[in-house]
Amino acid sequence: QVQLVESGGGLVQAGGSLRLSCAASGRTASTNTMGWFRQAPGKEREFVAAISWSGGSTNYAESVKGRFTISRDNAKNTVYLQMNSLKPEDTAVYYCAAGGTFRRNTNSGEYNYWGQGTRVTVSS
Fold first, then answer.
1. For residues 63 and 37, what is the distance between their CA atoms, to the nearest angstrom?
2. pLDDT in the model for residue 27
3. What is the pLDDT of residue 123?
4. For 73, how many CA atoms within 13 A lie in the half-sphere containing its CB?
């Protein structure tokens, strides 16, 4: 029983920034690896970023590397995604997910719990 709730999405112009948050509740001991995925209109869900329990290991999709930063605050049971230099191609619904031991965790099947998603729209 883990609940994940995303927030922070919205409408932003190209080049702008947004900070997404994902608050976990319930069995937070099951929130080892945390990840962010996104699904753009007409496209399949894709991996964005992942972070280990300690925060010492991270992994990013090449399309967002250098622009996005994933972090977590375990005292607050919250994971963040700082998104800078946003592009119209970043427009999607962003989902937070919780999974097991960190490896690379780029596949959705490696995660056990999912949030409801928060929509990000980047205008050109």
1. 12
2. 86
3. 97
4. 8
